Amino acid sequence: GALPARDAAHPAPALSFEFFPPRTEALETQLWNCIRRLEPLAPRFVSVTYGAGGTTQERTHATVSRIVTDTTLTPAAHLTCVGATRDEVDEVARRYWDAGVRHIVALRGDVPGGGAYAPHPQGYAYAAELVAGLKRVADFEISVAAYPETHPAAASAEADLDNLKRKLDAGASRAITQFFFETETYLRYLDRCLAAGITAPIVPGIMPVSNFAQAAKFSALNGASVPAWLGHLFEGTEDDPETRRMVAAVVAAEQVRLLQANGVDEFHFYTLNRPDLTFAIAHILGVRAVGAK
Ligand code: FAD
User: Name one Pfam family in it (predicted).
Assistant: First the structure.
């Protein structure tokens, strides 16, 4: 159906954008072009991921610090506890606080290269413990991860929901979901969160798909299911980038419009450091660049 005009009674949604820290100079240029392109959309915050097992610690810190000093944006730093002592994690957090960073996306993280997770003997064992530890370091705003299709290692969907509740009770004020492609999956999850007494925002994590093969690979790693219809939509566009871009825009636009029609007014975008699809979808959601008409 048609969306209402954006006006005082129907404000544009709140957005956040996720980036990964660059590994090379070329990727750094790409990241900063992306940040500059999205900056006028005035997102609520932008977040920078922390590589598996903290492998990007310095690059994440450098990127987040530059966002503080060089842009109008409010950064959030991802931080994981896998493979680190509590003291090491607290030190990273203290450095962020001293650099003016007030928002942490607190995660357990995965074992680099895959394999079964085991807590560090002197570490925070799970994200809920990390959240509590961060709150002892400073009064950070904290976001945590949520899984509409259940985290792959959870004992059960109920246990995973209990875990989300523990993270929020420990001091997180928002959850951001793993990406998903079926809107129903997310809406049913919201219902289950509400039934469990969770009132904090559960912000949908949106991954605009421009490369289906890559999305399918990510999904396999993250336990997100890829519906057959999505594969069919991209089928035959492998050597046709123009059509692929148009299909990608339609798929992403339909997803966010359906969410918006169901009352969702906050969105987190996994940009993969590419601005075009995210910018177009934000536009479709009613967001306009500051200073633009
Ligand atoms: P937790 O909340 O600790 O949960 C992990 C698993 O343990 C779940 O199955 C849970 O049910 C279970 N569990 C929790 N507590 C207990 C307990 N006491 N006993 C037994 N089981 C328990 N990874 C990165 O490396 N860097 C990033 O920057 C990053 N950013 C992310 C951003 C978002 C929005 C999301 C959704 C994920 C991100 N990840 C990132 C991936 C994340 O690190 C993995 O999904 C990881 O496997 C789980 O992290 P978590 O914080 O959800 O863990």
Answer: MTHFR
* Side chain identity at residue 279, one-letter code: F
- On the question of pLDDT at 293 being above 60, the answer is no
Query: Which tokens go with 119?
Result: 């807590």
The conformational region for residue 4 under phi > 0 = left, psi -120 to 50 = alpha, else beta, is beta
How distant, in Å, are the alpha carbons of 158, 221, 237, 248, 285 from that of 231? 30, 17, 10, 11, 25
Residue 58 falls in the annotated catalytic set: no
- Ligand 1: lining residues by beta carbon, under 6 Å: 49-50, 52, 78, 80, 105, 107-110, 126-128, 145, 151, 153-154, 159-160, 163, 167, 176, 178, 205
Structure tokens at 57: 């610690």
Mean pLDDT of 90-113: 96
Q: Atom 30, ligand 1: which residue's CA is nearest? A: 49
Query: With contact defined as beta carbons under 8 Å apart, do 45 and 16 qualify?
Result: yes
Provide ipTM, 2 decimals. Answer: 0.99
pLDDT for 115: 86
How many CA atoms does the CB half-sphere of 181 hold within 13 Å? 20
Q: How far apart are CA 232 and CA 240, in angstroms?
A: 15
> What's the chain's average pLDDT?
94
pLDDT at 97 over 90: yes
Name the residue with tokens 């990273």.
Answer: 92
pLDDT tens string 65-86:
999 999 999 999 999 999 999 9
Q: Which atom of ligand 1 is nearest to the CA of 178?
A: 36
**For ligand 1, what atom is nearest to the CA of residue 143?**
34
What pLDDT is attached to residue 125? 97
Pocket test for ligand 1, best of 16, 108, 143, 218 (most atoms within 8 A of CB): 108
